[in-house]
Amino acid sequence: MIMLLDFYADWCGPCKAMEPIFAEVEKEYVQKVEFKKIDVEVEGAVASQYGVQGIPTYILVKDGKEVSRKIGAMPKAVLTSWISSNL
């Protein structure tokens, strides 16, 4: 199964804007994609491990390896198209 890592922070405006979109998309991809939110303030080591320099950053991981990355807020259609193209 593919995993989508969502690197965010509570103080990040674009991250907050993506929350409802992310919640909708998560429901649509149940059993296909595992969604994991990573607070960069709490899990800075994980953010460093993935080389995250800006938030929000979204990383798709398949078989333990990064397969694609997007940075910044985006419309739902862009997010779903990106996920689907990497399934």
The number of helices is 3
Can you give the mean pLDDT? 95
Query: Quick one: biggest sheet?
Result: 4 strands, mixed
CATH superfamily: Glutaredoxin
> Unreliable segments (pLDDT under 50, ≥5 consecutive)?
none
Number of strands: 4
Strand order of the largest sheet: 2-1-3-4
Order of SSEs = EHEHEEH
- Structural class, by secondary structure, is alpha+beta
Question: Notable features of this structure?
Answer:
single chain; 87 residues; alpha+beta; Glutaredoxin; 4-stranded mixed β-sheet; 3 helices; 4 strands; 37% helix
Account of the protein in words:
This protein has a single domain (2-85), classed as Glutaredoxin (3-Layer(aba) Sandwich), CATH 3.40.30.10. It is globular and about 30 Å long. A hairpin with a 2-residue loop joins strand 3 (57-62) and strand 4. The protein contains three helices and four strands. The protein is α+β, with helices and mostly antiparallel strands and 87 residues long.
